[in-house]
Structure formats: structure tokens, C-alpha cells
Write a structure and sequence with these properties.
It comes from Microthlaspi erraticum. Pfam families: Rep_fac-A_C. By secondary structure, this protein is of the alpha+beta class. The chain is built from four helices and six strands, in the order E-E-E-E-H-H-H-E-E-H. Strands 1-3-4-6-5 form a five-stranded mixed barrel. Bound molecules: zinc ion.
Amino acid sequence: MQADQTVLCTLLAVDLNDYCYRVCSRCERVIPSDNNGVTSSSVCKFCKSKVPKLLYRILMSIATDTSVKTVICFDRAATVLFGCSADEFFHFTKLNPSTASMVNQVLDGEVFRMTLTRPHNRNAQHMRVASVVPLRSGFQPAIVTLTQLCSTTSH
Ligand SMILES: [Zn+2]
């Protein structure tokens, strides 16, 4: 059993309903949040730091030449797709509320080479994206395209 697999795939959809989680910026332990992703307390229980940060954790659907699957993409790989940190993206979508729904439009259909790994946790349902490489030569991270769209539509 085992082995990472590298696949060529097309991105079908990104689930942005719950795309990030909060960790302590000092010790990187997860800070639990309520259902809305906002917490009442942002103080780390472990090191008492009061500076949380957001990390990506995104479910996405991809199509390989043999199947369609849902995979989970954590911070490092997601940053390649988005072109900014989860914190930056979160603030960008707060300032430009319409952009969250546009992420799918700008990323859908992009072709990537992804390395998928089996989750360490046997109960986890989805393979994780260990790395992602855009294959289209004109690929732009989502934040770049969204910033361009915002500046053209606001005039
Ligand atoms: Zn901490």
C-alpha cells in the first residue's frame, strides 16, 4: 500500500465555504474556532501568544484522466494556487466580497501536476496535495487575477 502518486489533473472546483483554519503564529498549534470560523478567544492555550494566523485547508475537486476525486490542499500547496497567504486572502475577500465566488471562475480548468499523498490519519477521507505545479504557461495565482478584476470593475 502506499506511495505518493503524481497526477496530471484539471481543477474542477474549489470549496471556499471553509477554506482556512487558525493557528497560533508562534507555536502553530490549531486554535479551535466556532462554526463560522471566528473565535471568541484568539489566545493560544499553549504558549499564550495572542497572534493567530490563518492557514489554508481547502477541499477541491480534480479530474485526472481516469477519475474525478476530491483532495485536500493545505497551506504550502494552496499558496501556489492563491499567490498569497490565507491571511492576505481573507482580508482581500473582506474588502472585495464578490471575489470569493470568483475564485472558481479564475482557477477552474487550470491544469496542474499534483503530487498526492495518503493522509497520515487513516480516518481521513481525502488524499492530500503535497505539491502542485501549474502547467499552463500563462498561469496566474488567483490573487493576481482577482486584483486585476477588481481594479477594472471598480472604474
Ligand atoms: Zn501558541
